[in-house]
Amino acid sequence: MSATPTLKLRARIYCGEEIAMGPGKADLLAAIAEEGSISAAGRALGMSYRRAWLLVDAMNRCWRSPLVETVAGGSKDRGARLSATGQAVLAQYRALQARIAEVEASDEYALLRSGVRAAPLPGAPDPAG
């Protein structure tokens, strides 16, 4: 564990109770764009095809337009690619992540961090016994 307090912010966009976009889904979109298939993207990220497919399905159900388009069959064009919406969502989400990362360099964060102990004090005894 780090002796220096750290700030961990993650942007998650919800669609009801479902995460429509978060860091892992953004990484999956980027891998699909790079690899050209859901299975290859899943392998590149160390996840099963089923897990990758479930994440793609959730994204496609949450956004007004699908983020990932698939082409099944034996043609040379088979696989998956980001739709125009998927490309835009990924770019906008990455820009949001970059802005969130800037917070760590902020004066507000530095002031908060300076007041946090390296480790918590032992817990107080339970007054109930």
From TrEMBL:
Name the InterPro entries for this protein: LysR_HTH_N (IPR000847), Molybdate_resp_trans_reg (IPR051815), WH-like_DNA-bd_sf (IPR036388), WH_DNA-bd_sf (IPR036390)
Instruction: List, alphabetically, the Pfam families matched.
Output: HTH_1
Q: Where is the HTH lysR-type domain?
A: 28-87
Q: What is this protein called?
A: Winged helix-turn-helix domain-containing protein
Q: Which organism is it from?
A: Novosphingobium clariflavum
